[in-house]
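A note from the maintainers: we've had questions about how concatenated examples are separated. There is no special marker in the raw files; a new sequence line simply starts the next protein. For clarity in this README we add a label.
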Amino acid sequence: LSRLARKSELYPTRFFLHDVTRSGDTITEGYFGEIEKGLFAGEVVCIKIPRFFCFVSSTRILFQALSREIMPWAQISHENVLPFYGIHPLGDGRGRFGIVCPFFDNGDVVDYLVKFPNTDRRSLINGVAAGMSHLHDNGIVHGDIKGRNILVSSTVPLRAVLADFGLATVADTNGLMSPDLTSSGDEGGTKQFEAPELFDPSIPYRRSKASDVYAFSMACYEIISGNIPFPGRHGNHVMIMVGRGVRPGRPVGKMYQDRGLDNVMWKLIENCWEQDPGQRPSALKILERLSETSTAVS
């Protein structure tokens, strides 16, 4: 559908939501843009307003970008992937729009684990892996997996939900790998979660399923340890360290064992952050190994 829309320049009208009420209050603001709360069909929603870093000469070019980055997401339905409700034109005369998604009261996994440290962290990790695997199965690279982009549901049991597809792109072999208009570009990711190959300037557009797997390993470290990888290090320093094969050390102590960090889990994390992208396991293989370790523990 996204490829058809790109070629025909026709976009499903159901993606455009006009009956969205904006609060006008910015919840947060980042590299990608700003996020507001709003109401849609009686539900509290999140309205994400992208910031574009290149000149958009026409609505046609803008919607071509939407077909590349948003429409593949709109076709995804999985309990560990943030649902896409639609696009809300802001009507501000600047051609801006908001991406409308459900609002999660629990926020992201980083803040949630600070408030509720006894949460089953392995279950959250399993959810992240399941969401990543589903994206990869559908040819989508998330591009920015990290704790701040993992939301926590209010359901019982809790679910980790992958959000923020600001760096996502369709990873197929049919010409969709290199969008010429992107909402955040290659600089939007966080250096602590980026794979070593992403720092190689000789590779033009290089986010991949393998770099997602690397980011997943760092997100696992963050969820289990409670710390961002390489805390206190400047991004440029992290780039040098990672390029040399340096990785975070294993957290030691009963607290981390209770959070699910056994030898098998640590070995999986190490495999996922291998220097060579070709040596990292696939998302499906990660799910299989997590399932095996969960069965062994139970």
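[label: protein 2]
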Amino acid sequence: MASLVAEAAQLIKGAPAFVHCRDADAVAALLANMRRDGPSKFQVIADFDYTLTRFRLDDGERSASTHACVEQSPQLGEDFAQRTRALFNKYYPIEVSDIPEEEKIPHMIAWWTSAHKLMMEYKLHRNHLKEMVKNSRLQLRGGTEQLFAACQSHDAPFHIFSAGLYDVIHAFLAHHNLEKLGMHVVSNMMSFDQDGFLTDFQGTLIHSLNKNSKALRDSPEWDRIKVIILPLAPVDWDNLGDVFMCKGLATTNCLRVGFLNDRAEERRAQYLDTYDIVIESDPDMSFVNELTDWILSASSEGRKTE
């Protein structure tokens, strides 16, 4: 076991400058335990918007969330776009403010509910989604497909747990031929009538501040949940609620990795109080993949240390 801890410590020591670790010794010990346990006890829970996807694109402008794929598309007209933009301008400052979380929650419920009602009012059709995704600013971080593939090759479940839109996520994965990699998506799922128009959303509303383990309990892989890496990095630079997505899960080891996409100097200390590892500067998935590959390799040397 000591040799595994030493290997893990070297991984952390060799991390790029934009990777910060709250307690390097504790994280090295945690990584060593995960490597020792091997792929059979490994599982990923990850947010989608601005975690698996980029925060800013090459032009320096912000990329799209799954809701923005719909709201910024010309498919539903300019009036729809203006009304959803007005919701953003009203509620986003509340989401990223310093007021207590319990005071934010009613506003987040109102924001998500109003946005979803507008999609129904303006007759969103199932067939719109493919075109919306194709022409959107939604883009995966580099190396994310490699992360999906690594988990699939080791039969390690990969859960995408998002306050976004289930059907947009699946349309995006299908557009990029990634559904074959077997990710399990938990998000706000649309209901369509027989003519293909949106009529409602199924199940409990998932917004940015209520993501927790309850929605995961119906997962077909629930009985395999033992170890979690990347348990919901933040949707945005100020959204720390995602870290509670693993709350309530019977985990033996849980490594929390957060992406701090913006205002890093201002938010770093707060994130390091919440996450084991904080990744800044909106990079690709290279460091996450390095950790994942090392854990999943489960070498004979690692097994001898059990």
